[in-house]
Amino acid sequence: MRSHLLNDTTADRYRRSVTEGVERVAAKLATTDRPFTGVTVDALAPRIEQIDLDQPLHDTTAVLDELEEVYLRDAIYFHHPRYLAHLNCPVVIPAVLGEAVLSAVNSSLDTWDQSAGGTLIERKLIDWTNERIGLGPAADGVFTSGGSQSNLQALLLAREEAKPGWAGRENGDDLAKLRVFASEVSHFSVKKSAKLLGLSADSVVSIPVDHDKRMQTVALAHELDRCKRDGFVPMAVVATAGTTDFGSIDPLPEIAELCAQFGTWMHVDAAYGCGLLTSLKNRDRIDGIERADSVTVDYHKSFFQPVSSSAVLVRDASTLRHATYHAEYLNPRRMVQERIPNQVDKSLQTTRRFDALKLWMTLRVMGADGIGELFDEVCDLAEQGWKVLAADPRYDVVVQPSLSTLVFRYIPAAVTDPSEMDRANLYARKAIFASGDAVVAGTKVDGRHYLKFTLLNPETTVDDITAVLDLIAGHAEQYLGESLDRAS
Ligand SMILES: *Cc1c(COP(=O)(O)O)cnc(C)c1O
Fold this sequence. Notes:
Layout: H1 11-31, H2 41-49, H3 60-72, H4 93-105, H5 117-133, E1 140-144, H6 147-161, E2 178-183, H7 189-196, E3 204-207, H8 217-229, E4 233-240, H9 252-262, E5 265-270, E6 294-298, H10 299-302, E7 310-314, H11 334-337, H12 356-365, H13 368-391, E8 395-398, E9 405-410, H14 418-435, E10 441-445, E11 448-454, H15 462-487
Parallel strand pairs: 2-3, 2-4, 4-5, 5-6
Antiparallel strand pairs: 1-7, 6-7, 8-9, 9-11, 10-11
Helix pairs in contact: 1-3, 4-12, 5-12, 6-7, 8-9, 14-15
The structure holds pyridoxal-5'-phosphate.
The site of pyridoxal-5'-phosphate (PLP) has 16 residues, from helix 6.
């Protein structure tokens, strides 16, 4: 069994094994003609169920053959131009190369003595990101597993920083005084975080959005006012820079003003919109982000990085101390005096992947402009797609895109019952998924079912968009035809 350990004597096996895996994926990419096969849970589950994990095959080629059956053949392929559903990007090759290197070397970024150069590379990428944001000379941050963790950590810091504003923790109910403000279309991780942080069930105040799905700052001002008047503490405002559903960007400068006025922590959730940090022409859409106290970025959404790659950034490095604990066996306090950089002092995780290497390889090979160019392309595509939808009488489209998302609904002239339209749109989404011809997402707008394209693939064309719209219309019409038959 020792021949399976990656070391000096097994370099050849390593090379052969990994190459064989790479060949399989490369062949897959070359021949995939749809984003999905349409396999059902019922068809796939038994194939996985019948594999006896206590009966190993011992042979890499045989295992890869098996993997073809249970995974590769029926996986969802984000690189396909008709994958239009969620915030999953096609990945860039330098990042995948980084992934291969980082898992083979297997550095752990919690301490210097488990990573060395990896720690410095991560720190440099944090500084680079902060410079792009404009957070100032005292800024810092750390890579995380994703936007949800970044939001959680940011809100932890906000909670601890809000402490001087409330009476202290002696009266167990003090956490109940804290309020977090986020728009009604903010990410659910804000609410999850509030729960994990021990805030009360009604701690997250939902601020209504305007017609463009941007937080209404008049309503925010009103709620902040009321919070203070009622003796509560405005712990944080979460501004979303790129909502998951619409790509809409909250008015950051106005929100920054209000946060300054009320002494409230400003968190910008730019999990999606962070791609604008490299944009060559749309960077101004997130102006105001530089005024944040903390920022969430998901490189695995709009920097074309493989999952996971995310970071939380803070204006004031010293606030990260709220996540610092020392252990003799890992990061004793004296190491701080010795100026040994232990990233675990800033992180919620302990053992942690060297995800930063993927972004490093990407910046070194393609440059930031390379990422920005790709992201600009998908934003342009969304703009064109919006025009197509706006001109198509079969569809109702909401919100001109600020990023790369289109939300729309099939509305046949002959059908006036909105519930029937809901069912037709839901049916179309399911039918397309089952066909595997495309993958589209869905959401609700004002209580009605809508469909959604999240465009993150520069290879997707306007023709793909029109073709998928025709597919949707076809399925919806089929449903409506059948339901007419049922009714008569
Ligand atoms: C995706 C997303 C998140 C969560 O990020 P994960 O990486 O999926 O954990 C948070 N906020 C917004 C706005 C997002 O779009």
